[in-house]
Amino acid sequence: MIPFAWNVVLAMVWVVLTANLSATNALFGFVLGYAAIALMQRQFPALHGYAQRVPRFIGFLFFYAWEMIKANARVAHDVVTPEWQMRPGVIAIPLEAKTDGEITVLANLISLTPGTLSLDVSTDRQVLYIHAMYLDDEVELLESIKDLERRVLEVMR
Fold first, then answer.
1. Do both 76 and 146 map to the same domain?
2. pTM of the prediction?
3. Number of domains observed in the structure of the chain
């Protein structure tokens, strides 16, 4: 979080120095700040990994958008067809996420995806319980959730 804050500060400094308060100029300042932080991250341990995290985050956005499209299409298809294809159920997902922030982000992304809902986290924070509308193949659902978790952790760690 500290490198991102520095990136925002560098963007604001750029806007002030150029005396041009426009979205394009602020975005350009943000890109310049990102490049400066990427060049300095070896000298400052607090900045370590920031330059690698941003491309991972952009890749994650595309991955999650595709997952949302697929889930929406499946639910929409089920709504417009006469026979229901749902097979709802609850499944326990063992967690690799350790911190409250990681678990919260994962649970919220699961709940945002149509057809799935995060229900609860075990008291020892080792298991996340999920309700799924389409529990045809438990192994496939478990693998997709673990893939989502892996990608979330790549961005957050």
1. yes
2. 0.80
3. 2
